[in-house]
Design goal:
Elements: E1 2-10, H1 15-29, E2 33-41, E3 51-54, H2 68-74, E4 79-83, H3 88-94, E5 100-102, H4 129-133, H5 139-156, E6 160-163, H6 166-174, E7 182-184, E8 203-207, H7 216-226, E9 232-235, H8 241-246, E10 250-251, H9 260-266, E11 267-272, H10 282-289, E12 294-297, H11 302-305, E13 311-312, H12 317-327, H13 340-352
Parallel strand pairs: 1-2, 1-4, 2-3, 4-5, 5-6, 6-7, 8-9, 8-11, 9-10, 11-12, 12-13
Helix pairs in contact: 3-5, 7-12
């Protein structure tokens, strides 16, 4: 059985790429033949798990990628799985191949800041010209961004769409997709050494992009209020990196995914005050899988994997500080339902939808989790 994966770029950075890497590795163990087409290929290529082909134009934000449909069809895949591709013209071109499309973020239903309004509130309104215009000052720019967002959404209609959280499914259904077309395929921790040693002294950890939407300044405020002995360490990079370094914080920059186990092992608690509505929040699941508690705002899909202690209402900096102090150093584990076995079952169910037979009949029996 052959699966072709398409992605704008293959990298070992970010939650979306972590899910793709986990899926490719797991499907290889199940005996499926895989090819990955990517516009750019960076780090973390998983050896013999799949063959990799660079296809020019796959990482372009708009317009066709010449020869893409022909290149994919030539391999006669039984399943075409599209990841991290938000180019509406390319998605429309692939429609005759009946792709499965995994949607990892808000760019198919929110033209602004990830369901986080310009005046700093969570957005509970579905995509529309009237509602979304309030988040923009430049009418011409808004018209352009809204048009491409709506084009992306139209490109999904009638396809099988995978998301990592029930939150993301609800957003896509509210935007107009049929509920039966949207499948929740939960991720699982992948590529982290459970025997890893701490890569440095104990700390309070923030892991992710250093941008306002991730609540970087809120993490600083809550850490200061919590008055713990451990320093706040930032694993990631972004526009706020210089500000943090000037304030004296340790910033590791982006690290290869395999190195994150040692960073998590340093942490007495992971802090996640996401201002945008978090599509999933894979760093939290990874930390919990290594026994690290998570102090987080109730944002988007976070509550689906969070075990409870340390989860506070969105926007509550004081509550976050109290949660940091309360759960730091305490044993923790994820909410149930995020095993490799469950994730693979959901993935196969999505692959099999609308197929005359089952892809499972052409793969090896499911192997135990590793």
């Amino acid at each position: 059985m052959r699966v072709a994966h398409l992605t704008d770029r293959w990298t070992d950075r970010g939650g979306a790429s972590a899910y793709l890497a986990a899926a490719v590795a797991a499907l290889s163990v199940e005996g499926l033949e895989q090819t990955v087409f990517a516009g750019a290929i960076g780090g973390g290529v998983p050896g013999p798990a799949a063959s990799f082909r660079r296809h020019a134009g796959l990482d372009a934000p708009r317009g066709a990628a010449p020869g893409l449909v022909e290149a994919v069809a030539a391999g006669r895949p039984d399943v075409l799985h599209v990841h991290n591709l938000v180019n509406p013209e390319q998605l429309e071109a692939l429609r005759p191949l009946d792709p499965v499309v995994t949607v990892q973020d808000h760019r198919f239903f929110c033209p602004s800041r990830g369901k986080w309004t310009r005046d700093g509130r969570p957005c509970g309104v579905a995509l529309s010209l009237e509602a979304c215009a309030e988040c923009f000052e430049d009418a011409r720019y808004f018209a352009e961004v809204h048009e491409v967002t709506a084009a992306r959404l139209r490109a999904l209609r009638g396809l099988r769409v995978g998301v990592l959280s029930a939150y993301m499914k609800a957003e896509l259904v509210a935007a107009g997709l049929a509920a039966d077309d949207v499948f929740v395929t939960p991720p699982w921790p992948h590529g982290l050494d459970p025997e890893a040693r701490p890569s440095g002294p104990p700390c309070i950890l923030f892991a992710g992009r250093l941008v306002e939407a991730k609540g970087v300044r809120d993490a600083v405020a809550a850490w200061r209020s919590a008055s713990l002995d451990q320093p706040l360490v930032f694993a990631g990079t972004g526009p706020l990196r210089t500000e943090l370094e000037r304030a004296g914080f340790e910033v590791t920059g982006w690290l290869p995914h395999r190195a994150m186990a040692g960073v998590y092992r340093r942490a007495r608690v992971l802090v996640m005050p996401s201002r945008w509505q978090e599509p999933f929040g894979i760093a939290g699941l990874e930390a919990l899988s290594l026994g690290v508690p998570v102090a987080a705002w109730d944002s988007g899909g976070v509550r689906e994997w969070h075990p409870g202690p340390g989860l506070v209402p969105w926007g509550d900096v004081g509550g976050l500080a109290a949660a940091i102090a309360a759960v730091a150093g305490q044993p923790a584990s994820p909410a149930p339902g995020f095993s490799r076995e469950r994730g693979l079952k959901a993935l196969f169910d999505m692959y099999d939808a609308r197929r005359p037979g089952s892809i499972r009949t052409c793969s090896k029996p499911p192997s135990p989790s590793r």
